[in-house]
What does this fold into?
Amino acid sequence: MIIRLPLNRATFFFDLPLTTRFNPSKILFLYPMKNNRNFCIIAHIDHGKSTLADRLLELTDTITDREKKEQVLDSMDLERERGITIKSHAIQMIYKTEEEEYIFNLIDTPGHVDFSYEVSRAIAACEGALLIVDATQGIQAQTISNLYLAMENDLEIIPVLNKMDMDNAMPEEVKDQIVDLIGCDIDDIIEASAKTGFGVDKILDTIVDRVPAPKGDLEAPFQALIFDSIYNSYRGIIAYFRIFNGKIKKNDFVKFVATEKEYNADEIGVLRLGYQPKSMLQAGDVGYIISGIKTSKEVKVGDTVTHVSNPCTKMVSGFENVKPMVFAGIYPVDADDYEELRASMEKLQLNDASLTFEPESSVALGFGFRCGFLGLLHMEIVQERLDREFDMDVITTVPNVNYKAYTNSGEVIDVHNPSGLPGPNKLDHVEEPMISAQIISKSEYVGSIMNLCIDRRGELKNQVYLTSDRVEISFSLPLAEIVFDFYDKLKSISRGYASFDYYITRYQPAKLVRLDILLNGDTVDALSTLIHFDNAYNFGRRMCEKLKELIPRQQFDVAIQAAISTKIIARETVKALRKDVTAKCYGGDITRKRKLLEKQKKGKKRMRQVGNVEVPQTAFLAVLKLD
It folds into this structure.
């Protein structure tokens, strides 16, 4: 029998038979659903999200003085070193007002465009969002992108003007930008400084007043959305979920709808700085579930969890599958590590659902995986995490985007790898992905930015002055042109002021060719790339020059060639290491020297036929480093 005692601040549940002796440890303390607030923090990179999250945790006494440090929620060393948030982090806080107590479930999200998928997952689990804008920089491209994501999901937006303590803050100017962007009243914008704590108490009160409480039916069948997961070598896969309807108790028999797998809920609980077990969770709660799952394929981010005995009728909607933008091969340095690399990638995919991969093989590198990433930074982070978290030495091949190849017979082939492009005799035409790019910068850099975009085959679509010295430029660009060093060059020419955001719009026909790199006549498939015909000659020449610097000298000449189909367009030669065989000849007839040189020449020719050229790992990254 359950006895319910309504109190001012919460409800106690005594889930005990009446004959049982009273035991205080059996009390379950539940807050009413109207006291729940689920919200996320969205902003452009480096606008103070993680610092504001630290202040919120301190004001709600979620962390002790001993636990205080900068970027509390950024748990990876990589995040601290680079000063960026890579993963969304969920944490529960208890905020006490004079009348009531509230449960705050906060999800801190990344700000970089390459991790926008993390933001979309956080937004799917929330009812409100804090929109953080830097008072010194104003509205940036990713601010707009994340805001649109939140508005599509009907989230309550609370605008916060951060870094008000800075001497170069422009509050009036930036407030006008925010009003123009979201159409709020100027009084709705909260002035704050996450560094000093100014205005943070007002943010907490505004969350209570404006973020709606979760809507859900406690009596309906259990229905929860998995928005993240992590692998623990001792406990298996820990899935993070948001409950939309019903309730779940410890040891309930649950079902994962997409995979159709059934498990016991061995442990459920809420996310504080660590895991805090609970005996029951209800609609509106954000928590975790541990079911002893060891196989990573059995948990899918975006899946719905329900009870086996009384399942929900439909899955939670509004969650989109990831669309990779950049593709590259990842291969183990040691071929024997292939299976270990597969296991590492599966565990990493649990924590980073935007990573996709499938097996492939290369003549030069052996067996590996063709991986899909959201951008170059994402690719770099995945490679770094494989090294740090799983101790895997890997080689990454030249990045490519996804092309559509149309054959003469009308067949459409998705090409992720240059080796997958049909031959010229079968190929009708190739289509490449186009993006709509938004660049926001100071007006003095407009000319340089336009030149950069036009050099990358860009087409100007729109130009809007947000203020007298801030301009938003919209360009249509091929995705392949921004994959390598576009972002770095944009930052350089704008002295760090420009911000960049993009999304794929369509595919359009393009004059693309496959550029192959040959070493002594043999194609190195890992260095092949698809490139626009106009850029192929210049790119091939620079690639050969770079490889000449990187490939060590052998006992024979190494010919480095760039080729389009059967036509060689560039060549460099790595000269052989030669022993001075004529050193012992002190004078005498010239025929003696010639005889020794001819003998050496025959030996070099024979060695070249059987010798292998070792391509160093740095050569595979050479494409990214080309100036």
